[in-house]
Amino acid sequence: NRPFRIAVLPGDGIGKEVMPEGLRALDAATKRFGIAIEYRHFEWASCDYYAAHGKMMPDDWKAQLQGMDALFFGAVGWPATVPDHVSLWGSLLKFRREFDQYVNLRPVRLFEGVPCPLAGRKPGDIDYFVVRENTEGEYTSLGGVMYEGTEREMVIQESVYSRVGAQRLLKFAFELAQSRPRKHVTLATKSNGIAISMPWWDRQADEVKKAYPDVALDKQHIDILSARFVLQPGRFDVVAATNLFGDILSDLGPATTGTIGLAPSGNLNPDRTFPSLFEPVHGSAPDIYGQNIANPIAMIWSGAMMLDFLGRGEGACRQAHDAILAAIEAVLRDGPRTPDLGGKASTTELGEAVARNI
Amino acid sequence: NRPFRIAVLPGDGIGKEVMPEGLRALDAATKRFGIAIEYRHFEWASCDYYAAHGKMMPDDWKAQLQGMDALFFGAVGWPATVPDHVSLWGSLLKFRREFDQYVNLRPVRLFEGVPCPLAGRKPGDIDYFVVRENTEGEYTSLGGVMYEGTEREMVIQESVYSRVGAQRLLKFAFELAQSRPRKHVTLATKSNGIAISMPWWDRQADEVKKAYPDVALDKQHIDILSARFVLQPGRFDVVAATNLFGDILSDLGPATTGTIGLAPSGNLNPDRTFPSLFEPVHGSAPDIYGQNIANPIAMIWSGAMMLDFLGRGEGACRQAHDAILAAIEAVLRDGPRTPDLGGKASTTELGEAVARNI
Ligand SMILES: CC(C)[C@H](C(=O)O)[C@@H](O)C(=O)O
Ligand SMILES: CC(C)[C@H](C(=O)O)[C@@H](O)C(=O)O
C-alpha cells in the first residue's frame, strides 16, 4: 500500500495559522495508528499568490495536483486586496466543480464544554449531518440584465439542476442515513413557492427513496425547516439540500450548537475519480489574523474527516478518526480554550493539547 | 370620513377559529378609539370553496373586493383535499401579486412570558423587522425540464427581479429604519455564490442608500446572516431580503423568539393602489383544527398591524394598534395561555382576555 498523498493548501488569513495544527493532529494520529501519509505543500490558491501573479492558481494546477488523494485546505479570501467572488470562484469553487466534489458533508453536533446558544440542550440532543449538493443548483453565472440603466431594468438568474446531480446527492444522503441508527432523511424543499425546480427535487427524492425502504424520507419547506433547526433540532438525522439551502443550513446548524468556528467539512467526490477537499467552514477571518488566537479545531476535525474518507470508514483510518474526535471532545471539555470559547490559549497551544490527547 | 372597509377571509383550518378572535380585538379597539370600520365576509379563498367549485376563488374576485381598504386573512391550505401549490397559488400568492403587495412586513420580537429558545435572552434583546420582497424573485414558474425521463434530464429554474421591484422594497426598508432609533438596514445577499442576481441586488442597495445618509447599510451573506439570527440577534434592526431569503428569515426570526405561532404579517401595497393583506404567519394547521386550541394572537396582532397601516401610523389608529399590542403583551405575561404556551385556555378564552385588556 502506497502512502496517502495529501495536497496541503493553507490559503489566506487564519488558514495559515490553523493549518500547522491540523497537520500536527494528523501526524500524531497517523503515527499512532501506523498510517502512511505524505504531504505536498502549495502556496497558491491564496490571495498572496494572486497579488504576485494576477490569478489565484497557476494554469497547470490540475497537473500539479495529479495523483493526490485529497486536498487539505485552510481558508481562502482576503477582501482588502481581492474581491471575494474572484478569490472564491478562482480556487475553492473551482476545486468543487472541476474535481466534481458533489457532496459537501457537514456534521452538526453539540459538545460538552461548548456553550450552546439554545436553551436547555445537552450533548446528544443535536447530532445530524447536512448533505449539501456542491456542484450545481443556485450558484451559477447564468442569466443577465436587460434594459440596464433604465426604469425597465430587470435581471434573470438561472438555477440549473441535473437528474444525475440530484440523484447521486440523494443516494449519498440515503446511504449515510442507512448507516446511522435513526435512518432518517429530511429533504429541504420549497415546492410550494419555487414552482419548477423544487417539485422536481421532491420527485427525485421520492424516486431515490424507493431503493432504501428502511430509510424514512421527510420533505420540509426551507422556511419551517430553518425554524425547526432552532426549535426541534432532535428531529434531524441526515438533511439533504441543494447548494444554496445546504449552504444556509450548514451555517445555521453549527450556529445552534455554538460551534460555527469549530465546524469542519468534506467536499467529497464519493466516486473517487478526483481528490476530495477537506476544509474548516470558518473563513480566513482577516479581523483576527496574525494574533495566533484562531481556534484550530475545525481544521483538525476536517483532517479527521479526511482520514475517515480515505479509509472508507474502516480500519486504522477509522480508528485514527475516532481518536482525533475523542481528543477534540476532551479538549473542548477540559480546556485549554482559545479566546472564542472564553479562554486565553493560543492556536498553537490548542493544537498541541489535541495532539497530546491523540 | 367614510369607515374603513375590510374584507374578511378566514380561509381554512384554524384560520376559521382564530378569525373571530381577530375581529373581537378589532371591535374592542375600534370602539374604544372611535374608529369607523365595516366588514364584508367572504367564504372563498378556501379549500371548502375549491371542493364545491373546482377553484379557489370566483372569477370576479377582484370586482367583489372593489373598494376594500384591506384584506383580513386567516390561513389557506388543506392538503388532504387540495395540493398546497394549488391552494396557495390560487389565493394568497394571487393576492400578493395582483394587488401588488410588494412588501411582506414581519416583526420579530421577544415577549415577556414566552419561553425563548435562545439561552439568556431577555425582552428587548430581540426587536427587528424582516422586510421581504413579495411579488417577484425566486418564486416563479419560469423554466423547465429537458431530456425528461433520460439520464441527461436537467431542469432550469429562473428567478426574476426588476429594478423597480428591488428599489421600492429597499426604499421601504430604509424608510422604516429611518423611523427607528437605530437606523440600520441589513441586506440579505449571497453575492459570493449566486453570481448574477445577488451582486445586482448589492448594487441596488448601494444606490438606494444614497438617499438615506443617516441610515447604515450592512450586507450579509444569507448563510452567516441566518447563523447570526441565532448568535447575535441584537445586531438587527431592519432586514431587507428577496422573496426566498425573506421567507426563510421570517420563519427563522420568530423561531428564535419562540413565537412562530404568534407572528403576524402585513402584505403591503405601500402605494395604496390596491388593498393590503394582513395574515398570521402560521398556516391552517390541519393537525389541531377543530379543537378550539389554536393561539389567536398572530391573527389579533395582524389586525393591529392593519389598523396602523390604514391610519398611516398616526392618530386613533396608532393608538388602537398600541392598545392591542399592550393587551397582547399583558396576556402573554399574565395568561391565560393556550396549549402551545403550556396552558389550558381555548382560542376563545384567549381572544376574550385580549379584548378585555383592550
Ligand atoms: C405558504 C407559502 C407559499 C408562503 C410563502 O413562502 O410565501 C408562506 O411560507 C409564507 O411565508 O407566507
Ligand atoms: C464562501 C462561499 C462561496 C461558500 C459557499 O457559499 O459555498 C461558503 O459559504 C461555504 O459554505 O463554503
From TrEMBL, chains A, B:
Keywords: Manganese, Metal-binding, NAD, Oxidoreductase
Catalytic activity: (R)-malate + NAD(+) = pyruvate + CO2 + NADH
Cofactors, names only: Mn(2+); Mg(2+)
Entry keyword annotation includes Manganese: yes
UniProt-listed Enzyme Commission number(s): 1.1.1.83
Ranges of residues in domain Isopropylmalate dehydrogenase-like: 5-354
Top EC class of this enzyme: oxidoreductase
Record Pfam families: Iso_dh
Matching InterPro entries: ICDH/IPMDH, IsoCit/isopropylmalate_DH_CS, IsoPropMal-DH-like_dom, TTC_DH
Top-rank taxon: Bacteria
Family, similarity comment: Belongs to the isocitrate and isopropylmalate dehydrogenases family.
Protein name as annotated: D-malate dehydrogenase (decarboxylating)
